[in-house]
Design brief:
The protein has 115 residues and is an alpha/beta fold. The chain is built from five helices and three strands; from the N terminus they run E-H-H-E-H-H-H-E. It is 41% helix and 12% strand.
Length: 115
């Protein structure tokens, strides 16, 4: 399986691409492309409804002062480990259940508070 990861900075079209991908998930899957659900945030209200927010949080060191960690209520190492484990398990399950040959991830880490 191939994976494409777009880590957009401000004004690179990440949000527009995310809306296109989520609006066309069914058709993309028919052509072998998966825009997975598992990296999306599930907390309401959503910061960016179709963004792969969990990828941004997962890719950082545990730091309750990071904006994204505050937003996802990751306040300690235990919560961070829980996010990591849950995200890995959810993504693995989603990937194991698909016939897609390519997976696409998009996130805007800069906007989400990566530092």
């Amino acid at each position: 399986m191939k994976a494409y990861l777009h880590i957009g900075t401000e004004k690179t079209g990440t949000t527009a691409i995310q809306y296109f991908l989520v609006s066309n998930r069914k058709y993309l899957l028919e052509d072998g492309f998966l825009y997975p659900h598992s990296p999306e945030e599930t907390k309401e209200p959503k910061l960016a409804p179709f963004a792969h927010t969990k990828i941004a949080a997962f890719s950082m060191k545990a730091n309750p002062l990071q904006d994204i960690h505050k937003y996802l209520q990751i306040t300690n190492a235990e919560n961070f480990l829980k996010l990591q484990n849950n995200f890995q398990n959810e993504l693995a399950q989603e990937l194991n259940q698909t016939k897609a040959t390519t997976v696409v991830f998009l996130t805007n880490i800069v906007r989400l508070g990566y530092s």
